Amino acid sequence: MPFCPICRFEYQEGVKTCPDCGAELVDRLEPEKILEKLKPAYITSSPATSQMICELLKDQGIACLTSNQLGSALLPVFGESAEIQILVPENKAEEAQQIIKAYFEENPEEVSLVICSNCGAYVDADLDKCPVCGEMLEDE
Q1: Residues in CB range of 24: below 8 A, 6 or more apart
Q2: What gap in Å lies between CA 34 and CA 70, rounded to an integer?
Q3: pLDDT in tens, 94-112
Q4: By residue range, what is the domain housing residue 25?
Q5: How many domains does the chain contain in total?
Q6: Rg of the chain on CA atoms, in Å
Q7: Cut 0.70: pTM above it
Q8: Which of 1, 42, 70, 101 is most buried, by CB atoms within 10 Å?
């Protein structure tokens, strides 16, 4: 039976790509820590935006998960928003960031972006600090 190397789910014979993240399935899973091979390509507080971005990346052939799919998004405290990371394979992170940046440049009404001056992550402008490195984001 084939497995997804990102989600680590097993699928029926004949399935070639993971329907959840778009990764090409493998015959067996390696005993590696997959999270060490994922890198955030974008951070948002909007579940709708995170879903849209993952679909965009999957359409471009880049496997994608959100931090809440991995169970790591915590319920927000009253008045706060949960931060959702868009995770991609480390070797595709730069390509994914360029695809996301190009999309939002072509569709500026979708969301406002800022780039963390410390780590370079693309982050929704409504967040106060970068959830990747913890740096406070500058107001524009």
Answers
A1: 16, 17, 18, 63
A2: 11
A3: 999 899 889 888 887 776 6
A4: 1-32
A5: 2
A6: 16
A7: no
A8: 42
Residue bearing tokens 């979708």: 110
Amino acid present at 137: L
Q: What tokens were used for 84?
A: 């959702």
Encoded amino acid at 42, one letter: Y
Condensed to tens digits (0 to 9), the pLDDT of residues 40-50 reads 888 887 888 88
Q: Tell me which residue has tokens 């579940």.
A: 47
- The angle that helices 93-106 and 47-59 make with each other, rounded to 10 degrees, is 110
C-alpha span between 2 and 26 (Å, rounded): 5
> CA-CA distance, 114 to 64, in Å (whole number)?
21
Please, what is the Cα angle at 110 between 65 and 45, to 5 degrees? 45
Confirm whether 2 is domain-assigned.
yes
